[in-house]
Design a protein that fits this description.
The protein is of the alpha+beta class. The protein has helices at residues 18-29, 32-45, 79-89; strands spanning 3-12, 51-59, 68-74, 102-113. It has one domain (3-112). Helix content is 31%, strand content 31%.
Length: 121
Amino acid sequence: MNKLAILVLVFVGACAADTTQARVRTAVDARQARLDSCYAKQLANDASTSGKMHLVLRVAKDTEEVEAVEVEKSDLKSKKLQRCVKAALVGANLGGPAEESLNVEYTLAFRVDAADTSTED
């Protein structure tokens, strides 16, 4: 069985306290199932879909969630996938208020992981 792989590369676009940055990453990780679902739906329409999507996640000071997600650049042409990814990440809960406003740049790499070719007898 093939596994879906969404790799996440993170860059912080503002000077943020390490705890807020870590909480943003944890909040995004908690949305992994939603991101996987977005990609699985896209693969059902086009099995060759793969590429990178560069995002900016915005978090306002003293808020507890991602308030906005913008697609800065994408190799993926599907606007439907872009909308799904944005919807999956907006509202991701940080588990506490952010110490300061920040923009976090994420690069999501969408690919089917063919390395998992295990079979069960």
